[in-house]
Amino acid sequence: MSEKNINRRDFIKLAGTSAAVTAVAMSGCGDNVKTEKIIGENITSKKEIPTDKMTYRTNPKTGDKISVLGYGFMRLPTVNNQSARENGQEEIDQEQVNRLTDFAIEHGLNLFDTSPAYCQGRSEHSMGIALSRHPRNKYFISTKLSNFAPPSWSREASIGMYQNSLKELQTEYLDYLHLHGIGMGANFEGKELSGLEAFDKRYIENGVLDYLMKERQEGRIKNLGFSYHGDVKVFDYLVDNHDKWHWDFAMIQMNYVDWKYAKKINPRNTDAEYLYNRLTEKGIPVFIMEPILGGRLAKLPTHLSKVLRERIPENSIASWSFRWIATHKNVLTILSGMTYMEHLQDNLSTLCPLQECTDEENNVLQRVADEFVNFPLVPCTQCQYCMPCPYGVDIPGSFTHYNKCVNEGYIAVSTQDKDFVINRKRFLIGYDRKVDKKRQAAHCIGCGVCMPHCPQGIQIPERLTDINNYIEKLKQEKL
Predict the structure, then answer these.
(1) Phi-psi region of 187 (alpha: psi -120 to 50; beta: other; left: phi over 0)
(2) Residue of 201, 323, 353, 414 with fewest CB within 10 Å of its CB?
């Protein structure tokens, strides 16, 4: 991707402007048809999705053909048509999960990913029900050993978690098992542990990694790897010791913004360019998480989305990130948490088959990334690890509303802005509708209980204070 930067005015002039796009309401979800519905902020045209054009990558160890699009079971639909990740108490709509799974398999998607921690611990069970209705050779199961907290660090608890995954998933073996959240620190017996110290406690001192390697040798784990969050020293340690542990894959956060700007967005993160290149040099295939950065690359600020719509009007904004990621040859699969049928259909349409990004498109996306990082967004991916707040604050809800207003241009900079009155109303009324007043940012006392659990390293109390200060200035019209 080009290192060249140009200013915003020249960029918009270069890219051109696009005509307004009229959103067409969804009229139904027929088999093999991608319905007309807004995906992010763009619509996708109705067209048939082929059942035999999925893009596959070959696992160099097993020779298996893996769909470049993987289904992440972390945002499953609920009976009230919500996401079980954000609405953990709602019942998962198993019938809808079954339909989504069937449609995915019918169109060539064969990698399904989950974790004992997803959907308040219910994701693996739901996946087991959905997949067991199909022949075992039609899909690959990916799950994680999510022993984050010290109570689950014992050998007995960790092995019990792994064995329970086999039970919940209704399978005798796992195709891919991740050591989950490698690089994250933890509080252990009143002491703050570094990412490397936490890794040793979770997997080395208790012999759990040795146990898992034996399980791999005996065939109950086909591929053993890790998902990386946080301290790059831990990532480098695991990669440098590849000859010792023989990682079959690794998962990283990667998209066209995180490629060069992950650290700028969040100082605790590492640029994906470094992570991907290190894994590629070692011959370790790559799983991708957060392909659209928690949804933020599906709905870009208006002036940036126009740049992409001008080039391929019929494609969704989200499709650009999936195409860009899949153009990288060492990517084995891209995990996407697809709650609704239209999300699945849009991603299938993008990758059945893949049209790789051209050099010109890569340069455009680099310039979009350059612009994107200038917006003061909170790097929240709504993972919910910070919840529940002991004081009832809806942390992800507050961040989501703020980010939405920034993306849609509803942030007022000054009372002198021509749109100040309408933007003020949109922000304040929208916030009251999104987040109950008793759970808004004003109720954060700065206790910091949430911070060790945030994989993005967000200074949560500080950002909530910033949002509350902005709200007070809006109310008093003192910007």
Answers:
(1) beta
(2) 414
pLDDT at res. 46: 54
Contact between 357 and 326 under an 8 Å Cβ cutoff? The reply is no
Q: What is the pLDDT of residue 268?
A: 84
The angle at the Cα of 11, spanning 8 to 17, to the nearest 5 degrees, equals: 110
Q: Which of 87-91, 217-221, 276-280, 466-470 has the lowest mean pLDDT?
A: 87-91
Of how many residues is the chain composed? 479
Distance CA 25, CA 207 (A): 55
Give the angle subtended at the CA of 208 by the CAs of 207 and 209, to the nearest 5°.
95
What residues are paired with 123 via a beta bridge? none
Q: Reply yes or no on whether the pLDDT at 63 is more than 80.
A: yes
Maximum Cα–Cα distance for the chain, whole Å? 69
pLDDT tens digits along 273-298: 999 999 999 999 999 999 999 888 99
Regarding pTM above 0.70, the answer is yes
Q: Residue 100's Cα: distance from chain center in Å?
A: 19
Distance CA 241, CA 370 (A): 35
Contact yes or no for 183/232 (Cβ under 8 A)? yes
SS (H, E, C) the chain: CCCCCCCHHHHHHHHCCCCCCCCCCCCCCCCCEECCCEECCEECCCEECCCCCCCEEECCCCCCEEECEEEECCCCEECCCCECCCCCCCCECHHHHHHHHHHHHHCCCCEEECCCCHHHHCHHHHHHHHHCCCCHHHCEEEEEECCCCHHHCCHHHHHHHHHHHHHHCCCCCEEEEEEEEECCCEEECCEEECHHHHHHHHHHCCCHHHHHHHHHHCCCEEEEEEEECCCHHHHHHHHHCHHHHCCCEEEEECCCCHHHHHHHHCCCCCCHHHHHHHHHHCCCCEEEECCCCCCCCCCCCHHHHHHHHHHCCCCCHHHHHHHHHHCCCCEEEEEECCCCHHHHHHHHHHHCCECCCCHHHHHHHHHHHHHHCCCCCCCCCCCCCCCCCCCCCCHHHHHHHHHHHHHCCCCCCCCCCCCHHHHHHHHHHHHHHHCCHHHCHHHCCCCCCCHHHCCCCCCHHHHHHHHHHHHHHHHHCCC
Condensed to tens digits (0 to 9), the pLDDT of residues 115-154 reads 999 998 999 999 999 999 999 999 999 999 999 888 899 9
Nearest to 365 by CA among 318, 314, 329: 318
Least confident of 39-43, 90-94, 102-106, 116-120: 39-43
pLDDT tens digits for 181-226?
A: 999 888 888 889 999 999 999 999 999 999 999 999 999 999 999 9
